[in-house]
Specification:
The protein is α+β, with helices and mostly antiparallel strands. The protein is built from 10 helices and 7 strands.
Length: 233
């Protein structure tokens, strides 16, 4: 993946962050104001057109605005990911969820529930290959991306084969947080995945967040790291 010049990087970063929050295509007028770049709107439009030609942005339907592509999200994660330390109440909520008196498997299940609630995404746990637990599906299907029947049907098929997918990827999940986007994501090309190994007694399990490609990777990665740290204590 090529390295973009600084102006294009600023515009791509702002587009991703705005689109993650709004789920609406981002226009050049907003970018001209938000970027602080001392250039005309026409220059901004030209830069966006170039980012589209390079495959980092899409222009949905007849909208004047742009949305990030899979390549755009990957560039964002590679160059701009900000895992901000979570607020104290988030740390406390995770700590309360995985109280040390629970058994290892139950702690992992509770960590997944807390993750799903805090991130407003779905969460999954692999206790071992072909032993999967998931929660927070209502969060996933409430996203604008999954309001169409076809997308829901596609995601339902993914969930039907969750055990087989986990069996294939379980040994390959790294100890540190990993982010898989679109075609990289074995659970579904419409989705993003933030995943890592999680301590479970003398062994390990897998803990992850599954959301639309438009998920907040900054927050998701930070929350998952908080969950892993809490489980290790």
């Amino acid at each position: 993946m090529e390295t973009l010049d600084s102006r294009k990087e600023i515009l791509l970063k702002l587009t991703v962050r705005r689109y993650v929050k709004s789920a609406e295509p981002v226009g050049s007028a907003w970018l001209a104001e938000a970027s602080g770049l001392d250039v005309s709107s026409a220059t901004i439009r030209n830069e966006l057109a170039e980012l589209e030609d390079l495959g980092y942005l899409l222009q949905p339907h007849t909208s004047a605005g742009r949305a990030p592509s899979e390549k755009g999200y990957r560039y964002y994660v590679a160059h701009f990911l900000e895992k901000k330390p979570p607020k104290e109440e988030v740390v406390e909520a995770m700590s309360d969820a995985v109280h040390e008196s629970f058994e290892d498997a139950e702690r992992l299940r509770r960590a997944a529930k807390a993750l799903a609630e805090l991130a407003q995404e779905s969460a999954l746990v692999g206790f071992a290959p072909r032993n999967v637990y998931y929660t927070g599906l209502s969060n996933l299907f409430a996203k604008p991306e999954f309001r169409q029947y076809g997308q829901v049907a596609s995601m339902s098929k993914v969930l039907d084969h969750l055990d087989e997918t986990m069996e294939k990827m379980f040994p390959q999940v790294p100890p540190s947080v990993s982010i898989l986007i679109g075609s990289q994501n074995p659970f579904g090309p419409e989705c993003g995945l933030v995943i890592a190994r999680a301590p479970m007694g003398d062994s390990y399990g897998v803990l992850g967040l599954l959301g639309p490609m438009r998920m907040d990777y900054d927050a998701g990665a930070a929350l998952l790291e908080t969950a892993i740290r809490t489980l290790k204590r």
